[in-house]
Design brief:
Galectin; Jelly Rolls; Galectin-like; 7-stranded antiparallel beta sheet; binds beta-D-galactopyranose; 5-stranded antiparallel beta sheet; carbohydrate binding; lectin; 58% strand; single chain; globular; ConA-like_dom_sf; mainly beta
């Protein structure tokens, strides 16, 4: 049930691109991750990590070989075996996260050079029905 999706967008995903993941969590789901990765240094600009064991969504960045300070969503609108839609897009200042069209999180950019954010990854306990990456006019 470990699934893995990766897309490479050499011109950069931030700001201005919207990622829309539609899926469902499998029966024994423990956690899954949506990661916005940088093209060098193993950096994770944005790690979005719903944990079903804790009913919490943990957000963080991985830079200079360690995790930074965690930020948590104040709601957990995901259920086991329930379909969901997660949209993440960024402007110059923040990532914005919507679950089923309700905003759940705003995460201030920690990576300074947004152009280096070129990879998207979805891993672990999630059945992906579709994943769209589309240009969004944020200005
Ligand atoms: C760690 C976990 C990582 C990541 C990180 C976020 O405990 O092993 O996968 O989720 O927390 O702060």
């Amino acid at each position: 049930m470990a699934s893995r999706f990766e897309a490479s967008c050499p011109d950069g995903l931030c700001p201005g691109w919207s990622v829309i993941l539609k899926g469902e969590t499998p029966a024994e789901a423990s956690k899954f991750e949506i990661n916005f990765l940088c093209d060098r240094d193993d950096r994770i600009a944005f790690h979005f990590n719903p944990r079903f064991t804790e009913s919490d969504i943990i957000c963080n960045s991985y830079m200079a070989n360690h995790w930074g300070q965690e930020e948590r969503c104040n709601s957990f609108p995901l259920g086991i075996e329930e379909p969901f839609q997660i949209e993440i897009y960024s402007d110059n200042d923040n990532f914005h996260v919507y679950i089923d069209e309700t905003k759940v999180m705003q995460y201030k950019h920690r990576v300074e050079d947004l152009k280096t954010i070129t990879k998207l990854q979805v891993v672990n306990d999630v059945n992906i029905s579709s994943l769209e990456i589309t240009k969004k006019n944020v200005y």
